[in-house]
Amino acid sequence: MRILLHDYTGHPFQADLSRRLAERGHQVLHASCASFPAPKGRLERCPGDPEGLAFTALELEGDLDKYRFLDRWRLERGYGRRLRELIRRWRPEVALIGNTPLDPLAAAFAECRRLGIPKAFWVQDLYSIAISRYLGPRWGGLGRLVGWRYRRLEGRLARRAEAVIPISEGFLPTLAGWGVARDRIHVQPNWAALEEHPLHSGDNAWAAEQGVAGRRVLLYAGTLGLKHDPGLLATLAAGFAERDEVAVVVVSEGEGADWLRRRATERRLANLKVLPFQPVARVAEMMAAAELLLSSLEPGAGRFSVPSKILAQLCAGRPLLAAIPAENDAARMILEAGAGRVVPPGDHPAWLAAARELLDDPPLRRRLGENARHFAERRFDSHAIAERFETLLAGCLAMRGGAR
Question: Is 335 helix (H, G, I), strand (E, B) or coil?
């Protein structure tokens, strides 16, 4: 098959899927947005990659501020035009599109429909619910109207896809409410590319380069935005301020990272270090330098977001500490794996207490870290996952034009 895989954010495991599909003999073009600030995967050809694999990056027509809705809407509509042009120029036989804001997603689907290209909608987030939650309290009646418009749009796009691939069964009631036929829904949980996460010693070159060699690192790496609580990280730094051997390291960019830099200065938190996103080739070293791997998610975000950073953390052989809703799939995964501790979002005392418990109990940390890696080795078989996607995409091709 001639496959277009579009992943707006450029995350690692989507690039891993493109490689696996190309290894299976397909011609794959992996497209992403170069302008979106996020931890990126290997988005270029590497030695040993199959001949049928290619990468391309599309740009926004300006600087993205995720929290200025009207500017973001304008930029995303322009991005949709570029994505539409790419589809028209490359003419895939089938398109797999995920992690894409709804306006460019609608543009891509319209071009696919015009050209008779079947499409699979890879549902990483329910964007319209996030939009409603964000704009409703801020814009009042207008915000609710915008949210209603996007819920109708996302439902229509899901109904028109030949296949809908949600990452969680928790999305099924919403998809059913939108009228998506059950036989077109194929749940596929996310994964991490184990081959990109070899185990390293904690005393490594990355730790030395960042000035944290020999220190006990509590590491947060990934997006730090509206769905997260950067105050949790400031709480950790303040809570361990008297312990010189402990460093809280945050690897992120954007509003949350900027807020933490200001807070570190205001509160004189010398043990709080904020770094930009790191090259994907250094991520395994970075995680190995940590004694605890951190993640967070706001309570209201639990319905529509599963933090993919936790999947990579499970590969690292380190214990996890997460402040996320108990009903979130990621919380259940951490507990099922026996890989760490989960506390309620916003509960700063419980968060700090759990960090102290883990940091002061080396045998417990070792056991939880081993459990995490063993869980990842059992669950994250990217070759089997690629075979499933191959079957789904072949099914889309077979029912070309069959969606409403």
Answer: helix
Which residue matches tokens 């949350």? Answer: 256
- Coil, strand, or helix at residue 40? coil
At 294-315, the pLDDT tens digits run 999 877 665 546 677 899 999 9
Q: What is the mean predicted confidence (pLDDT) over 216-245?
A: 90
Cβ–Cβ < 8 Å for 283, 39: yes
Q: Which region among 68-72, 262-266, 324-328 has the lowest average model confidence (pLDDT)?
A: 68-72
Report the first-to-last Cα separation within the chain, whole angstroms: 23
Q: What average pLDDT does range 159-168 have in this prediction?
A: 94
Q: Kindly write down the DSSP assignment for every residue of 34-89, as one continuous string.
A: TTS-S-----S--TT--TTEEEEEE--SS---TT-HHHHHHHHHHHHHHHHHHHHH
Dist CA 341 CA 255 (whole Å):
27
Give the CB-side neighbour count of residue 351, counting CA atoms within 13 A. 27
Structure tokens at 259: 């807020």
The pLDDT of residue 66: 66
Question: Could you give the 3-state DSSP secondary structure of residue 95?
Answer: strand
312 SS3 class:
helix
Strand partners, 217: 247, 290
**pLDDT computed for residue 404 by the predictor:** 44
Strand-pair category, 216-221 with 272-275: unpaired
Q: Are 164 and 186 in contact (CB under 8 A)?
A: yes
